[in-house]
């Protein structure tokens, strides 16, 4: 029996190589998909016939600034684009000529009125208790207009900057509209982070990070979603269901170890980028996301060491090791998925990427469900034929691998 399974192992090795290839190409594909998730202002063509030479992906509130700056006349022509917005919200973009932040900023505000027309106006903000009343700004504004289409508001304006500095402090915001009146915006999370400085000539933005930070966050998201969020569950599925097929006997083990090792290495890289992001973000801490991330790293590392320290299949402690290994493994998968969704709400990428991840998880769960059913069927069938054949020592019943599989299933 054992000999026969060994010969199958050669076929298994080929299968393993093919599966590894599949897993690798899947992760490459996923990282390609996810890295293009990062919506960029550069790939966006404004539907009006205005063209802008420079643009910047603002780091918060799904916002983008497109502009032309003429340094000789000091004229700044802008399109401020705010996506993921409904008709019952206002958006604003402001320059603060004297300070940073909201107080003292000179704002362009836009929203849809109850009759469906867009209102775009200027509002100087003198204090935090503003209700965004219309008023004249400290600089000239012309060609002010706004559009709302496809859940995005775009404010167009031409600004005559009185200051010769090519770096401006800017702030952007959104909030609810009730009737024709703007309501106070949220005072936590991204709504208090949405400010920065912008170099009109180089296009560089800083202070709150800008493009560079968005890129780092996206890399962090991709690495972790692919490793902890996709590869690790796939590795668990391989271990749980491939070993029900006798022909896959040693192959499933190498596949499982290979898949989880790749996931762990990529995952640690992703975890490192997260730590770096956390250390750079002094003003805001995502405590839950951070804590779960650290727990995940510890549990994941524990699993790697547990693999090296595992007792032989027939060792009396192997049963307990198996329980421990499964417990930690499933905890890692559940925590990973929770943390990836926490990450989605922090990073706030385009909705379709969250949906894509939900799709991947749904597909994996669906496979898990039918494979679970099928392995049960195999186990029951095997038991029946064992009983019918009245073999004194079950074909494989006491084999560590399949034996545990069956025991596990009874426990579930
Ligand atoms: C395009 O530009 C022309 C001339 O500047 C203007 O009349 C027209 O309204 C513009 N079209 C759009 C869609 O903005
Ligand atoms: C020009 O900008 C500098 C720095 O941003 C600021 O200190 C100064 O008050 C501004 N001057 C005017 C006239 O707005
Ligand atoms: C909102 O403003 C528009 C345009 O001025 C007006 O037609 C509409 O009646 C106003 N709605 C309310 C509820 O005041």
TrEMBL record:
Keywords recorded for this protein, A-Z = Electron transport, Heme, Iron, Membrane, Metal-binding, Signal, Transmembrane, Transmembrane helix, Transport
What note does UniProt attach to the cofactor annotation?
Binds 2 heme b groups non-covalently.
Task: Give the location in the cell.
Answer: Membrane
Q: Which residues form the signal peptide?
A: 1-38
Bilayer topology reads: Multi-pass membrane protein
Which function does this protein serve?
Answer: May act as a catecholamine-responsive trans-membrane electron transporter.
TM region(s), chain numbering: 221-239, 251-271, 291-309, 321-344, 356-380
Q: Where does heme b bind?
A: 220, 256, 289, 325
Residues of the Cytochrome b561 domain: 181-380
Q: Which cofactor does it need?
A: heme b
Q: Which residues form the DOMON domain?
A: 61-175
Q: Name one GO cellular component term.
A: membrane
Write down what this protein is called: Cytochrome b561 and DOMON domain-containing protein
Annotated GO molecular function terms are: metal ion binding
User: PANTHER family from the xrefs?
Assistant: CYTOCHROME B561 AND DOMON DOMAIN-CONTAINING PROTEIN
> Which SMART domains does the UniProt record give?
B561 (SM00665)
Which CDD domains did the record assign?
Cyt_b561_FRRS1_like, DOMON_CIL1_like
